[in-house]
Amino acid sequence: MPNNRYFVLYKPFGILSQFSGEEDTLKNVADFPPDVYPVGRLDKDSEGLLLITDDKPLNHYLLDPKFGHLRSYLAQVEGIPTEEAIRQLQSGTEINVDSKLYQTKKAFAKILSENLMLPDRNPPIRYRKSIPDSWIQLTLTEGKNRQVRKMTAAVGYPTLRLVRWSMENLTIEGFASGEVREFGKEEIYKLLKIKADRFEKGENMGSDKTFSRPSVKRKR
Fold first, then answer.
1. Could you tell me if 127 and 181 lie in one domain?
2. pLDDT digits (tens, 9 = 90+) for 94-129
3. Which of 14-28, 56-70, 125-139, 188-202 has the lowest mean pLDDT?
């Protein structure tokens, strides 16, 4: 049986997280081998970490809500969030999911006070001199549709730019937009904090997750 393949992509803005279709898709970013597919998705207007693999058990594990794993996002928002807004993001906010109100789980949220070492977005966000913007880091253990954007809007600070930075210890630190790197299975599992023996038995690996602050480099 051939070995599985694991690719980490910094998905650029404007690219669909799929291989088929007439619009700009993953096939326009790099020449991936057949039979690999993205684990989950990033919306067309979001950027950042996208794992692409043919490892079906890993795909199931990362998408099954009962195996909660940490994923961190960097969100450039309109305005400067108050401490109360940050507390609301941490304790849970009400958002609309499938036309029903949903209370998000507890999260880690923090205002980032310095400029980030991120690739420029193409096209850049629309700059408005009269309205300041800021960056926040938001770390979740769940992944509802457009959840980060809905959460920041719910507390009064719409998201202007969204970058998925990490999944557990797997990050896009040092990546250029559109860059792809291949990893081995052992390294990917280690970065995702998955123990192969427990994983193969189908044990719940997500019940004891604690929030951490992933390293994010700033511009000097």
1. no
2. 999 999 999 999 999 999 987 788 999 999 998 887
3. 188-202
Tell me how far apart the alpha carbons of residues 156 and 132 are, in angstroms, rounded to a whole number: 14
The helix (H) or strand (E) run that includes residue 166 is strand 159-167
Tokens of 68: 């909660």
Catalytic residue among 43, 55, 64, 208: 43
- Per the structure, the count of domains in the chain is 2
Hey, what are 143's tokens?
Answer: 């992944």
Peptide bond preceding 123: is omega within 30 degrees of 0, i.e. cis? yes
- 214, part of any domain: no
Angle, CA of 22, 158 and 83, to the nearest 5°: 145
43 included as an active-site residue: yes
Q: CA-CA distances (angstroms) from residue 122 to 71, 143, 154?
A: 24, 25, 27
Whether residues 162 and 178 fall in one domain: no
Q: Is the dihedral of CA 24, 25, 26, 32 positive or negative?
A: negative
Q: What angle do CA 65, 55, 107 make, to 5 degrees?
A: 30
Distance (Å, rounded) from C-alpha 173 to C-alpha 168? 13
DSSP state, residue 140: E
For 5, the domain range is 1-67+171-206
CATH code of the domain containing 117: 3.30.70.1560
